[in-house]
Protein: Outer membrane protein TolC
Organism: Solitalea koreensis
Amino acid sequence: MRKTLLFFIFLLSALSCLAQRNNLDFYISHALKNSPLLKDYQNQMASNSIDSLLLKATYKPQVNASSTNFYAPTINGIGYDQVITNGGGYNALVTVSKSITDSKKVAAQLATIQLQNEGIKNTSTISEQDLKKSITAQYIITFGDIQQLNFNKEVLTLLKEEEQLLKAFTEKNVYRQTDYLTFLVILQQQELLLKQVNIQYQNDYATLNYLCGINDTSKVNLPTPAIELQPLPQISNSIFLKQFDIQSLKLANSKALVDLIYRPKASVYIDAGYNSTLTYQPYKNFGTSFGISVSVPIYDGKQRKMQYDKLTFAEKTTTDYKNFFINQYNQQIAQLTQQLLSTEGLILEINKQIKYSESLIIAERKLLQTGDLRVADFVIAINNYLNAKNLLTQNTINRLQIINQINYWNR
């Protein structure tokens, strides 16, 4: 008894884990985990972090060692002029150099990398939303297939039960042979429809696994997706609008970089080592030198103004895209909200029709069992019930899809 109880506890636990394993969150988490695109964005941000370190390293003192050695022999009075070559030259130097850089230039260059990271991060978040929307949409489709499959199984069971009864009445001449054959055709059509729905479910479920990067061909009964309408943020806080703000910041930073090109540049250096021609007291030719270089731009053909003009046009383009997006966003949200309200109202009406259809079928089944109903009337009632249930499933799925589309904008 105890072993049996433990077995049932284990079985229930396994079923619970299986149900949890195959819910919508399960597929979304696998899709996000397996997405190479999201991994690519993560790698790009990690690479940009290294670029920041590389930039900082270029402004630190640079230490280099160098050695240049040559010998210019004169043989029988033939060779390079000794006044020029001194017969050769030998040096080994260690040089330390450092650019004298304006802190604004460093900050602007670091800001460029930071804004690149912000753009990649925002694009990654949008791609994540795209993936969630895609997986949720496919999950809803597959869930709808299962609903259709289960419903058609119930109808087929109902028809098979009535087929046995109708067959018995036909043998007793209560119903005509043609009535029985008509009903049998309807039964066979339902069997074919069930097979068709099952094939559609298998294809849609395979597509769901494919999108998530899951290698699984087993059949599962997907639970109802926990999809609720989420409140939308202020559009100014939306990640979809943020991409335009980041682009504007990039353009402003580009202007700052253009200005920095026209600031004076300076660098200092110092070296120490050995530099000699070995012609006179070479042991005394150890020494050092130091210097500074300065560059001041004077005229470049008005390139600065032209760069400014290009950036101004880019800013105008960004503003146009931003305004167009805001208009489309408001229009789309209003349209989806209206569709959702209309669909929910239609679902209420369909549910009322289904109740009437179910009541009619129950009443006609009783009449069919007593031979007081035409088979054609019963078939019509079954078809009306089928159409109403199919319409309910379609609109229920449509409602979930609309909510999924609205929720896409909730970040």
